[in-house]
Amino acid sequence: MSDERPDEEPITAVAIDAPGVDEEAVVPWSMLVERDRVGHDARSAVDRRGRERSPWLVTWVVLFGTFWVASTITILAVSRPAIADDLGTSIESLVWLISGPTIAVALTGTTAGKLGDLHGHRLVYVVGLAGATVFVVLTAVAWSGASLVAFRVLGATIGAATGPSSLALINRMFGPNERSRALGFWSLVVAAGPAVGLVIGGPLVEAFGWRAIFWAQAPLLAAATLWSWWVLPETPRRTHVHFDVQGQATLAVALAGLLIGIDRAVAWGPANPWVLASFALVPVGLAAFVRVERRTPHPLIPLGWFRHRNFTVPVAIGFFVQFGYMGGFILAPKLLDEVRDLSADAIALLMVPRPLTFAIAGPIAGWYASRVTARTTVFAGTVALCASMVVFAFVASDPGTAAIVLALTLSGVGIGAAQPRLAACVANAVHDEDLGIAGATQQLVAQVGTTVGMNLLEAVQVTAAAGAVGAAGAASYSLAYGVGAAVSAVGVVLALMLRE
User: What fold does the segment set 45-239 form as a domain?
Assistant: First the structure.
């Protein structure tokens, strides 16, 4: 099949026939040594002006832009009251300020990934950064709640192009043996951006106002755009392949129904007609998507990938680890507020160990990728994540600071260790020409896990806490975290199925 990697043994892949020898493969040891060295080294790259670029320079340029694209979501999360006061609107009217961009990224990620594979990831990445810059400026001058939400959603839509393309650009710079190390730093940036927003968002908004955050972000994004345009190398383009418009449209229908239905089920109730209509779109969209993908010569996502363990298992694990990680993320601040009665600043400070350990664990796990197997690393990461939720479940009635820090640290270490190895497993399971859509598919499934985890665990907690006070109210968090641990444990089982 065209979407499979050829099954080659390392020896026979470089074996040659010696003169005068028939039917016998002679192993050239000097070539094997060189092949091993190259397999562990980064690849050189040439930019569009013919200049050779260091793979690590390309990586840092990509990470610089990715960091500033991701940095503002948590600033908005902690700043909604101040924004509502400034715009003369209610906090409830800004509900889509967080969920809107999240859904937009999920819907457009596959588009960006496929366009990068077809037309070049450098172009898609730079356009994504430039578009994000424009909408950050527009966000800074937003005049109403509706305009602010619209600019954030549109900015997230075009900024989503940086996600799959950043992964593809980094993966193209390194061989399979080095990808985990580079992706460890990618995980650091993905974690550090929101962490910066969480730590500095409240104080900066209080001191300078929420608009100043975006005025400060705009020149940094503009600088990242120019730097990327100047440094990043071109990636191959595929002129013989057409974009699968029907496949993207049918997938968008299914995803929109699922994500909007899940998001609104908590607010409006699962029996709300609009919620039921959203969920009804899911099977219809999926059936149409599968039918289109089977018939088209150039599918958006080759369905044959899902028949191979090396692709399907890491993608599925991503769903369960994001379910637990982000489900726990949404519950922890509520637990500290309602049970511990801490201030917003104290809660934000206490939450720092989680993204901080995430950011540290990613590069460390990537650095030791050649010494520890992917199965062992991902298994340890998923176990740590489950342990985090078990700790939360046991201490919910009396969440002491030490126990909370332990649980948050376990969560950060778990996802930080697992994520770069999962991304590398997916990249190594496909051809380089499909790195964009493969990474986008993985991010899409993880995004669904994020949405399901956050909304389901919050719904469990809210339902269990209805009418309860005191210890009974705290028990609702124990139940929610228990459910999160049970679901996340599926990722532990799947980790044992990973192949090297």
Answer: Growth Hormone; Chain: A; (1.20.1250)
